[in-house]
Amino acid sequence: MQLNDPLLLRTSAYVDGRWEAADDGASFAVTDPASGEKIGEVPQMGARETARAILAADAALPGWRAKTAKERAALLRRWFELIVAHSDDLATLITAECGKPLAEAKGEVAYGAAFVEWFAEEAKRAYGETIPPVAGDKRLLTIKQPIGVCAAITPWNFPLAMITRKVAPAIAAGCTVVIKPAEQTPLTALALARLAHEAGLPPGVVNVVTGDPVAIGGELTASPVVRHLSFTGSTEVGRLLMAQCAPTIKKLSLELGGNAPFIVFDDADLDAAVDGLIVAKYRNTGQTCVCANRVLVQSGVYEEFAAKLAAKVAALKVGPGSEPGVVQGPLIDAAGLAKVEAHLADAVAHGARVLTGGKRHARGGTFFEPTVLAGVTHRMLVAREETFGPVAPLFAFDTEAQAIEMANATEFGLAAYFYSRDVGRVFRVGEALEYGMVGVNTGLISNEVAPFGGVKQSGIGREGSKYGLEEYLEIKYLCLAV
Ligand code: ADP
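That is the input. Now the predicted structure with adenosine-5'-diphosphate docked in place:
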């Protein structure tokens, strides 16, 4: 791995503006999922180092929240510009530690940087309000104040964007943050910290602690100083962290698992639906929480859609993300591969047909063939669980009501997609889907100006958009006698 700026490859964690090792000097290796090769080494920290990071964030808080929004915005803007200026190196790091194709990694840098730009702008619009009083001798108003020290625990599938989507609104609002990146992808997080340092963010405003998830997470959730936890990851871990935050009544933003339906109605533009599904299903090799997990196709167009899809999926180039032309990288690790294989074996055992793919890729390692399954039913594991891999299972349905019922038959509610050219149906189905986000005739919905988040067991709160800032603000009500 070759970087233009070697200083972006860090081997220490970032606490209180300093680069630090673990107290006992322990470290762990970061590997490239495409080759299994070691690409870096970072500190294996635990509760003690985390407690120090929380202290640093707490100490930095008064000075940081006292700055005007315009002053904070100027520093965020500088951070944004540095991220953009180092896009190539950041993309190289993302591809090296998470495996996604370089073009996708560059897309992630642009997407992730956009949150910093957006919240630098939004910081200046944390408006309060005046409220018409109920008595002549009173004046009522609200102001918005930063919630305090925040914790961010982030996943490996978007090593950069999941950090900026949390940290940018937090620090724009006047909060300070302790970040725990995923153990698979700490290098991008530390490179971001390096650029935050260079941008002139004061010590303690942003801290990155790498190491043991249970110990670090335990300290972050138990601390009464930490007032907010933002987590993106599995519903299972989200549930656990929520319980751990209960004793100190922290505010929570949770972006958890999904089980996204992708519905193709018989009036859809089938070619557009195939292209939309390729984006929604196979992006990051199927490893995003908004990836289509269940493809519901109306009976009249089922065979035609399946054939068109299988032909396109069979042509997707698989390989290391750094190789030109590759659009499907490896799965993140052996556990990810095992889950995909288990879902596939279960579906086939219950009668599903493999239209293309269906096994480990000849490249070895954690590479898997992009797969399309037909004849899938609700009895199969793929109907209930997030596969998080390049497998598109095709279910058949007959009526609109049936499609809605099937789509909503899950405890998850993050993203849903559907293709239809009937404007009445677009509104009916868009409103009936129990999801936080719905893509209509598109497979790509995420951007910094729109609210990202789920309902049901997919999470709490919204990230990005004007609502993303609110997660990090408290409303204070002032009642004045005049
Ligand atoms: P995934 O299955 O995508 O790896 P996880 O929910 O396991 O999702 O991981 C998301 C983030 O949560 C990672 O940063 C991981 O280290 C962290 N994590 C996992 N388990 C715990 C835990 N018990 N306490 C705190 N953080 C955890």
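The chain has a mean pLDDT of 98.
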